[in-house]
Write a structure and sequence with these properties.
heterodimer, A: 507 residues, mainly alpha, B: mainly alpha, 17 helices, globular, disordered C terminus, Glyco_trans_ALG6/ALG8 (chain A)
């Protein structure tokens, strides 16, 4: 593409922001005995390097599962092993069995941060660049602006480079999957998504839209001919990639079961800690965790999740389209986040990625959502000592989006993709023209509430009787926002029709 | 909302860029800081607590006040804000005090006062875009009134600055603080100027002389030439350089461009060019020059770079080598990616955009210049990634500094010569600048 140098500059900006954020503290820094996610990753390097594969997921004297036992699928373990080999080369003390527990040093921090940067640079960033370059019907400048905004999304930067995680690997693979599947490279796309799934099991949030989209494509091609062939090939690809990743763990049934037990800890309850989903917010009024038995909780959560995502998925099977696919990814992931079992606040990133992908279609709403998603993680970020980078990256992201997309000029029915919905409502309620105005007011309300809560959390101490007051308020407010977005995105999906798309092309 | 949108849209890219750069500066708050941090904390303490008569005599800390009085007043003003962040930093005896609040205050003071720079850039950009006219200034008509009023302004400002100290009979003390000739010819990190090349030549000749038995080994001083706090040192083969010698060299280097400005005026751009040449000449031939001083030449040249292809070419060489020469100042590992990323960012953007701007004219660089600029990459890899793992690191730790300094000195001297040639051979411009 022309203006490749501008894209290079955008990537360099993204890398600079990432590295400067990584100079700050990480989760559990200087907090024995458990420390945090940073220590967990270091510990996994220690375990995978020193112990044979058979012992990675099992409790033993050398591998105490209570102390950050492996609870991600095998690809994470292999990645940790790779990092461990590099660590051994630089300083074996970092991964020495038992003695390296709680190891903290400036050099080690540099090493760990570098591993995150390299993984990001190899997987996530190229996917974003390629995605933006492949967008259709957009000028080169807009593509570059889009890449800038996606790369500046604060949530992912703060969690990966601040708190310390490797979300960019799984999200990057998922994005490669979206790319492949959207541009008819179905086999490669599903392979990439399987890799994502085998890196973090939370990618299951995205699995239904992938399944429905590919199924819809098969139906479209005709189940008696090409469609069936495609279905078979996809099944083989998925099965093959799973077998390849899990090969060492398929040797005996107990291994496989143990890994599954570590990945899906159903004993742990409806939710843990504070998270901006419906169950946690509902428990402010009614402690469902204590009232209902475990099995009922699982069933209720299952029902709500699937009922909320069913319409969009069915529509995707019947009318598969790349645009519908992206929006369904958003809707599905959001449904899972809001209603599912054992959701962690970081899982909002699984919703943020698809929203980043639709940034150029509905810039105003996407920017709003991405700001709320970062805000919902505020208690976590404050606990990690990431206040300054959070404020700075959020402001930078907002300025970038506001400038690149002129978001405040795009709040009419057409830009919000609510035209067909509004027309349908106007059949019964002719005066229904105020939707954009309501959305504007809601936006202001939301931003003011978030700003106030942030200010309060930073400056004030919570009252003694309610020590978690601010965290709960943050979760509650975020949850309300997310419910609104769930409704909004589902409206777009359900009212998105071919005629509307054709009309846009004609215009 | 639409009105807000339109206003936001036309508040435009400049505001977004200025805010973006400011936010990037905020992200750099937890990064490395040099001893200059303690220097400025000390000056805050001195100006806050002591009467003016003590400011240039105070020597509790080794970092004595060595900027002119307006800077001291600036620190005094800052100190009144500092006391709300952490009053402990204002205690003179709190040497090397650096709480997190102190760090925050210092960083924010830099970021905040940069607003002046941002505003200046904004005004300059308006000039370049042609929205502002140059004014019908007559450059070759001598006006007694004009000269007197200029002289009066300069006198008043200087009087305001030095007046109180003149009254206290402290001018010699101030002079000795501002111009410490007891420091060596070169700063500890060897600014990439003429004297760096001179030093290297002297060293090379002395080594050759020793090998060919032309020199007596017992007569050669062992003192290293790199320390900045050492007394004047002797060169071995070439004649030693005194402060007076550097002054004469600088004057000789500056005079041709000044004469050109007097007798062959080229309008405001000619003035700017002369300014840049003076800054560069002082950098190349001055006494105890710090590498930071290259910025005094780079920044004004950036204004000219968007108007003429030749200036763009000189600017790109100067800015790339100038920025690269600053790398040794940031020697810590966490900052290594930052300096490389920022350098790449700026270099790629400036070269590509200027190339696009002047695509219809001849290429910006000839093969020699391209080769030279590309050579910076391998040089960086050698100095920062390969050298630390070799056996020479312990025996000759200064080699990366030396190599960087010499390599950049070549580029900077080349830019200086090229700019001089363009000024001396450029056509004189008429009375008013046509637009």
């Amino acid at each position: 593409m022309e203006k490749w140098y501008l894209m290079t500059v955008v990537v360099l900006i993204g890398l600079t922001v990432r590295w400067t954020v990584s100079l700050n503290s990480y989760s559990g820094a200087g907090k024995p005995p458990m420390f945090g996610d940073y220590e967990a990753q270091r510990h996994w390097q220690e375990i995978t390097f020193n112990l044979p594969i058979k012992q990675w997921y099992f409790n033993s004297s050398d591998n105490n599962l209570q102390y950050w036992g492996l609870d991600y699928p095998p690809l994470t373990a292999y990645h940790s092993l790779l990092c461990a080999h590099v660590a051994k080369f630089i300083n074996p003390d970092w991964i020495a069995l038992h003695t390296s527990r709680g190891y903290e040093s400036q050099a080690h921090k540099l090493f760990m941060r570098t591993t995150v940067l390299i993984a990001d640079l190899l997987i996530y960033i190229p996917a974003v660049v390629l995605y933006c370059c492949c967008l259709k019907e957009i000028s080169t400048k807009k593509k570059i602006a889009n890449a800038l905004c996606i790369l500046l999304y604060p949530g992912l930067i703060l969690i990966d480079y601040g708190h310390f995680q490797y979300n960019s690997v799984s999200l990057g693979f998922a994005l490669w999957g979206v790319l492949g599947v959207s541009y008819d490279w179905d086999l490669l796309g599903s392979l990439a998504f399987c890799l994502a799934l085998n890196y973090k099991q939370m990618e299951l949030y995205h699995s239904l839209p992938f399944f429905c989209f590919l199924l819809g494509k098969c139906f479209k091609k005709g189940l008696k001919g090409k469609g069936f062939a495609l279905l078979l090939k996809l099944a083989c690809t998925v099965a093959g990639s799973f077998i390849l990743c899990w090969l060492p763990f398929f040797t005996d049934k107990e291994q496989t079961l143990q890994v599954l037990r570590r990945l899906f800890p159903v004993d742990r309850g409806l939710f843990e800690d504070k998270v901006a989903n419906v169950w946690c917010s509902f428990s402010v009024f009614l402690k469902i965790k204590d009232i209902l038995p475990r099995d009922i909780q699982i069933i209720i959560s299952f029902c709500f999740t699937f009922l909320s995502l069913l319409p969009a998925c069915v529509k995707l099977i019947l009318q598969p389209s790349p645009k519908g696919f992206k929006f369904t990814l958003v809707g599905c992931a959001l449904s899972f986040f809001l209603f599912s079992f054992q959701v962690h606040e970081k899982s909002i990133l699984l919703v943020s990625l698809p929203v980043c992908l639709v940034l150029n279609e509905i810039p105003f709403m996407s920017t709003w959502f991405l700001l709320v998603s970062t805000f919902s993680m505020l208690p976590l970020l404050l606990k990690d000592g990431l206040l300054l980078p959070s404020l700075v990256t959020v402001m930078a992201f907002f300025i970038a989006c506001a400038t690149c997309f002129s978001i405040f000029e795009k709040i009419c029915e057409e830009e919000l993709q609510l035209k067909s919905f509004s027309i349908s409502v106007r059949k019964y309620l002719p005066s229904f023209t105020f939707l954009p105005r309501i959305i504007q007011y809601l936006f202001f309300l939301s931003v003011i509430t978030m700003a106030l809560l942030t200010l309060m959390t930073i400056t004030l101490d919570p009252p003694q009787k309610l020590p978690d007051l601010f965290s709960v308020l943050v979760c509650f407010v975020s949850c309300l926002n997310f419910l609104f977005f769930l409704v909004y995105f589902n409206i777009i999906i359900m009212w998105d029709s071919k005629t509307e798309r054709n009309q846009k092309k004609v215009n | 909302m639409a009105a807000l949108g339109i206003a936001a849209g036309s508040a435009n890219w400049f505001t977004a860029l200025a805010l973006g750069v400011t936010l990037l500066k905020c992200l750099l708050i937890p990064t490395y800081h040099s001893t200059d941090f303690e220097v400025h904390r000390n000056w805050l303490a001195i100006t806050h607590n002591l009467p003016i008569s003590q400011w240039y005599y105070e020597a509790t800390s080794e970092w004595t006040l060595d900027y002119p009085p307006f800077f001291a007043w600036f620190e005094y003003a800052l100190s009144h804000v500092a006391k709300y962040f952490d009053p402990e930093m204002l205690k003179v005896h709190n040497l090397n005090y650096s709480s997190s609040r102190t760090l925050l205050f210092q960083r924010f003071s830099v970021i905040f006062t940069d607003a002046l720079f941002v505003y200046a850039v904004y005004e300059c950009c308006k000039c370049i875009e042609g929205r502002k006219s140059d004014g019908s200034v007559r450059w070759n008509s001598f006006s007694f009134v004009r000269v007197t009023s200029l002289g009066l302004v300069v006198f008043l400002v200087t009087a305001l600055s030095l007046g109180p100290f003149l009254a206290l009979n402290q001018l010699p003390q101030i002079f000795s603080r501002l111009f410490p000739f007891k420091r060596g010819l070169c700063h500890a990190y060897w600014a990439p100027n003429f004297w760096a090349l001179y030093n290297v030549l002297d060293k090379v000749l002395s080594v050759i002389g020793l090998q060919l038995k032309l020199l007596d080994p017992s007569k050669i001083p062992k003192a290293s030439m790199t320390s900045g706090l050492v007394q004047e040192f002797q060169h071995v083969v070439l004649p030693s350089v005194t402060p007076l010698a550097t002054f004469v060299c600088t004057l000789m280097a500056v005079l041709p461009s000044v004469f050109c400005l007097w007798f062959k005026p080229q309008g405001p751009r000619g003035f700017l060019r002369c300014l840049i040449l003076c800054a560069l000449s002082s950098f190349l031939f001055g006494w105890h020059v710090h590498e930071k001083a290259i910025l005094l030449a780079i920044l004004p040249l950036s204004l000219l770079s968007v108007e003429k292809a030749d200036d763009a070419s000189i600017f790109l060489i100067l800015t790339t080598t100038g920025h690269f020469s600053l790398f040794p100042l940031l020697f810590t590992a966490p900052e290594l990616p930052i300096k490389i990323l920022l350098m790449l960012l700026f270099t790629i953007y400036s070269i590509s955009s200027l190339k696009t701007l002047f695509r219809k004219e001849k290429p910006l660089f000839n093969w020699m210049e391209t080769f030279y600029l590309l050579g910076l990459g391998p040089l960086e890899i050698c100095c920062e990634f390969l050298f630390p793992f070799t056996s020479w690191k312990l025996k000759y730790p200064f080699i990366p500094l030396l190599l960087t300094s010499v390599y950049c000195a070549v580029g900077i001297t080349y830019s200086w010569l090229k700019l001089y040639v363009s000024v001396l051979t450029g056509p004189p411009v008429g009375k008013t600048k046509k637009k």
